[in-house]
Specification:
It comes from Mycena albidolilacea. One of its GO terms (biological process) is sphingomyelin catabolic process. Keywords: Disulfide bond, Glycoprotein, Glycosidase, Hydrolase, Metal-binding, Secreted, Signal, Zinc. The chain is of the alpha/beta class. 38% of the residues lie in helices and 11% in strands. It is built from 22 helices and twelve strands. 55% of the residues are buried.
């Protein structure tokens, strides 16, 4: 405890000095941040530090990151200078002991569990006669058409063949100044599991796609995950290059969504509180303009005015594509922690989805919702996930599919009309999640859907991949059919020949997984396309099946843990996390998407201060550094 409390009689005259954070308050705060109460207590000196200004806040966290060796020094400096001011802004706006603070303690440190959902009934138009009209069942006679779904390309324009692919940073295969000479393992031209995609790999995939599709959906994350280095000019150039490459390689429309990496700093999608360099309007202006030749003038205006969201009717169909920016529901978007008053619908994304679904219902259309972050995963705020679920319930007869990326896994989530009784009869919505291109999370892959031309439901989903173990991979990646969902899972659930792969079907598949471990283990391998497979035992399987049955985040069974903030708790080993300053391999999907952002660093901090090696001497070192950044006020010294 701070020595102040031994002299309570002098507290009053020193009220202003007390607000000034003392290095010991911070160090004790770090040391005691082992549980949810400790995290709330730590927010007191962190908030006081934020009140001193962004630079004191940023410098303190950088010193802490360096001394505790949470990452390489350049990573500490880059990640914290970029995202630190957002966190500092958030802390100034909230009470250290409120519900938002609890969310922050979960989202960054993994030290609290998420608070119960803030119950709220989203205003929704009453269902009219059109709502009850079930979409006509497919006659099953018309030939399905093909739509390609690809995601999380994470193209690294600085990928350098021959550079070290086995470095200590979150992303390798770049000519870093402190690179090992000679390299531990030189990077090949078409990618490596420790690195993001070289441009040649993306080109190879796009050349394949053009053979398969009518049109495509792309669910976001163009930019690489060296998040400590990205800036606005890099993101602008990365987005522009990729949009050009899409146009050149594909001779049909692409309907994209915005990813959390498609801004600078990473995850920077402010509410209305941001100014100057944190404004993200430039992303929407850029994408609105560059996507326009696949959409239309109305959609381009929507992208600009609805924070990246738009809606458009797919050519030659009666299907409305509604692309929404789900990064406003993302726990790593620190702008969302800046008030104790909840914002139910940040930037009106839910309202936009409702308006477009109502228009589709009125017009007798069906709709696909596309976005980056899936609604049921552990890194979504359970409030917005719950409100989104209300929309899915209301428009269940209009929505024919929901398509997302972000986790880097080939997986699915199911929405139910009654989460208390999750069964085939209550399953009302299927969420399709595409595998990533980036080799960081498995073999590069994309999906091709067979779409019923009358109902727009999915009749089959085929995953194509390029096996990095193939000796020819580094010369010319070969793309092959990996599996067909209908062939793989149909026989397990006696699927009728004309039945779609809908929510009912996927629920039956989860029941088959419960009974048949061989089938589940194949699914587990498919998630990463057979590359860096995470072993999954009985306890892990339970959580995995629970996640499949949760398009609503509050039902996904994940438990927050320090260092594993967004991890699949059964798959990650805290010991491994402790030993490595870089994310361990295999790492969990969300941290792979996230990269070494400040959230990742802080979740490491909670582990390092409690059990990191050489803890006492590093604490002494940290204290002397902090004294230089936040000089102890004279009045306190004299005590
Ligand atoms: C932005 O990042 C790129 C690539 O890392 C770098 O070359 C450039 O100098 C940076 N620009 C600014 C203004 O910092
Ligand atoms: C763009 O497409 C939407 C939906 O397909 C349609 O309602 C709108 O009128 C179109 N706008 C233009 C300018 O063509
Ligand atoms: C279990 O799943 C495997 C793999 O899909 C399949 O080959 C096998 O027939 C299934 N067993 C039963 C009893 O359904």
């Amino acid at each position: 405890m701070h020595s102040f409390f031994k002299f309570p009689w002098i507290l009053l005259p020193l009220a202003s000095a007390f607000k000034h954070p003392h290095p010991d308050d911070l160090i004790n705060g770090f040391k005691n941040a082992v549980d949810c109460d400790g995290c709330h207590a730590l927010l007191v000196p962190l908030k006081a530090l934020a009140e001193l200004g962004d630079s004191a806040f940023v410098d303190t966290l950088i010193a802490t990151c360096k001394v505790l060796k949470l990452e390489d020094p350049d990573v500490c400096v880059g990640a914290i200078s970029q995202q630190g001011p957002i966190l500092s802004h958030a802390l100034r706006g909230i009470s250290p002991f409120g519900k938002t603070a609890t969310k922050l303690c979960e989202g960054t440190f993994g030290l609290c569990q998420p608070p119960a959902v803030n119950q709220y009934t989203l205003p929704l138009p009453a269902p009219g006669p059109a709502a009850a009209r079930k979409p006509t069942a497919s006659t099953g006679k018309k030939t399905p058409f093909q739509v390609v779904h690809f995601s999380d390309v994470h193209i690294d324009r600085e990928y350098a063949p021959g550079s070290d692919s086995n470095c200590k940073k979150p992303i390798c295969c770049r000519a870093f100044a402190d690179e090992a000479v000679p390299p531990n393992e030189p990077a090949g031209p078409f990618g490596n599991r420790n690195c993001d995609s070289p441009a040649g790999l993306a080109k190879s995939m796009l050349d394949q796609i053009s053979a398969h599709h009518t049109w495509s959906i792309f669910t976001g994350d163009v930019v690489e995950a060296a998040v400590w280095l990205v800036n606005r000019s890099e993101v602008t150039s990365d987005i522009g290059l990729f949009n050009q490459e899409l146009s050149a390689a594909l001779n049909a429309p692409v309907f994209p969504a915005i990813g959390n990496h498609d801004s600078a700093p990473v995850n920077n999608f402010p509410l209305d509180t941001a100014t100057g360099k944190f404004d993200a309007q430039w992303v929407f202006d850029l994408e609105g303009k560059q996507w326009r030749h696949w959409t239309n003038r109305t959609a381009a205006r929507e992208v600009k005015h609805f924070s990246g969201s738009y809606s458009v009717t797919a050519p030659g169909t009666n299907l409305r594509i509604i692309s929404i920016n789900t990064v406003y529901w993302y726990k790593q978007n620190f702008w969302l922690y800046d008030s104790d008053t909840p914002t139910h619908d940040p930037r009106g994304i839910l309202e936009f989805a409702v308006k477009e679904l109502q228009a589709a219902e009125d017009a007798g259309q069906r709709a696909w919702i596309i976005g980056h972050m899936p609604p049921g995963s552990q890194d979504v705020f359970s409030d917005q996930s719950n409100y989104y679920d209300q929309i899915v319930q209301r428009y269940r007869n209009t929505i024919a599919g929901q398509f997302f990326g972000h986790t880097h896994y080939d997986e699915f989530e199911i929405a139910y009309s009654d989460y208390e009784s999750r069964g085939a009869d209550t399953a009302v919505g299927a969420v399709w999640i595409a595998p990533a291109l980036t080799p960081r999370s498995g073999n590069p892959a994309f999906k091709v859907y067979d779409v019923d031309p009358e109902t727009y439901e999915i009749m089959d989903s085929k995953v194509y991949f390029s096996d990095m173990k193939n000796p020819k991979y580094q010369t010319e990646p070969e793309w092959k059919l990996y599996y067909s969902a209908r062939e793989e899972y149909g026989p397990l659930v006696d699927l009728a020949p004309t039945a779609p792969l809908n929510a009912r079907f996927w629920h039956a598949v989860t029941e088959a997984f419960e009974k048949n471990d061989t089938a589940f283990q194949r699914y587990n391998e498919f998630m990463t396309r057979g590359g860096h497979v995470h072993p999954c035992d009985a306890a892990c399987k339970k959580v995995a099946i629970c996640q499949m049955r949760a398009a609503r985040a509050e039902n996904n069974c994940h438990v927050a843990k320090p260092g594993l903030t967004f991890g699949d708790t059964e798959r990650d080993d805290p010991e491994t996390l402790m030993k490595n300053s870089a994310p361990p391999a295999p790492a969990h999907p969300q941290s792979q998407c996230e990269g070494a952002g400040i959230g990742h660093l802080l979740s490491q901090l909670a582990l390092k201060v409690t059990s990191g090696p050489g803890r006492e001497s590093s604490m002494a070192d940290l204290r002397s550094r902090l004294e230089k950044i936040i000089p102890v006020p004279r009045a306190v010294d004299e005590l």
